[in-house]
Each structure stands twice: as structure tokens, then as C-alpha cells.
């Protein structure tokens, strides 16, 4: 009886790989769903932005704030769109994710990956009582 050529995998190895894929995909999907639920719980519904927030990019609690020199102000979710890590710093004119180094411009778009989607924009409303603004997670 002739031996099988070396490039043809044995049936057992093929079945193990198939079982790994069949069992692995739902497991990964469940882990991603759990991570997203946990991240949603961690974001406050309303974040107060003080009136003295500096011009340029800033991190205020869990929000990335961009204040323009003309007075306009924008806010973005402080969660990286790659894997959901909390963005906690601004380097130069970019917000930087500490986990994998994704960078975001002042308009929320991606400057450098691995993230591929822009930050989620938040609604900004004036807060007359405090003199600043509030960012609302919609």
C-alpha cells in the first residue's frame, strides 16, 4: 500500500482543526460581546466640561475634548475604536490610546492605527450653572 503524500493532512488532524474553528468562533464572539457590554457600563451618561478647558485636545474624565481658538468645542468618546481601551493622554495634537498606540486627530478621525474607525462624536450643550459645557453620550 502506498503512503500518502506529505502535503495531505491526516483525517484526525483535519477534524481537530475543524472542531477548533467551530468551537472557537462562537467563543470569540461571546468574549467580544461581553467586552462591549462592560465598556458601555463604564461610560457616564453626562460629563461636565469645565469652562477653562484649554485650546486644543484634552482628556476630561472619559471624554476627548477639542476646543478651537474660535471658541467652538467638540467632544468624542474616550474609548479607542480598536479594542475599547480608555484613551488617557494627548501627545502633541493627537489623542493616543495606551494599549496599542492608535492615534486620533482633533476631529476624531484616525491618524494612525491599528484603529480603523473614528471616535464617536458626543453631543455638547452649554451648562449655564457651571459656565462650561456638558457632553452627553447618546
- Overall mean pLDDT stands at 82
Number of distinct helices:
1
Name the poorly predicted regions: none
Largest sheet: 6 strands, antiparallel
From the 3D coordinates, which CATH architecture of the largest domain would you assign? Answer: 3-layer Sandwich
**What characteristic shape results from the CA principal axes?**
elongated
- State the separation between the terminal residues, measured CA to CA: 69 Å
- Element order: H for helix, E for strand: HEEEEEEEEEE
| Helix vs. strand class | alpha+beta
Q: Give the CATH level 1 class of the largest domain.
A: Mainly Beta
Number of strands: 10
Oligomer: single chain
Strand adjacency order, main sheet: 1-10-9-4-3-2
Strand content: 25-35%
The CATH topology of the largest domain is Rieske Iron-sulfur Protein
Give the CATH H-level superfamily of the largest domain.
Answer: Rieske [2Fe-2S] iron-sulphur domain
Helix content: 10-25%
Amino acid at each position: 500500500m502506498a503512503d500518502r503524500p506529505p502535503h495531505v493532512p491526516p483525517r484526525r488532524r483535519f477534524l481537530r482543526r475543524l472542531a477548533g474553528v467551530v468551537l472557537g468562533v462562537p467563543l470569540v464572539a461571546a468574549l467580544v460581546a461581553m467586552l462591549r457590554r462592560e465598556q458601555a457600563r463604564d461610560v457616564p451618561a453626562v460629563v461636565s466640561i469645565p469652562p477653562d478647558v484649554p485650546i486644543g485636545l484634552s482628556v476630561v474624565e472619559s471624554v476627548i475634548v477639542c476646543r478651537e481658538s474660535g471658541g467652538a468645542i467638540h467632544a468624542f468618546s474616550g474609548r479607542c475604536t480598536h479594542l475599547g481601551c480608555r484613551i488617557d493622554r494627548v501627545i502633541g495634537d493627537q489623542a493616543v490610546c495606551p494599549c496599542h498606540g492608535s492615534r486620533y486627530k482633533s476631529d476624531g478621525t484616525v491618524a494612525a492605527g491599528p484603529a480603523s474607525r473614528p471616535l464617536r462624536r458626543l453631543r455638547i450643550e452649554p451648562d449655564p450653572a457651571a459656565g462650561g459645557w456638558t457632553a452627553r453620550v447618546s
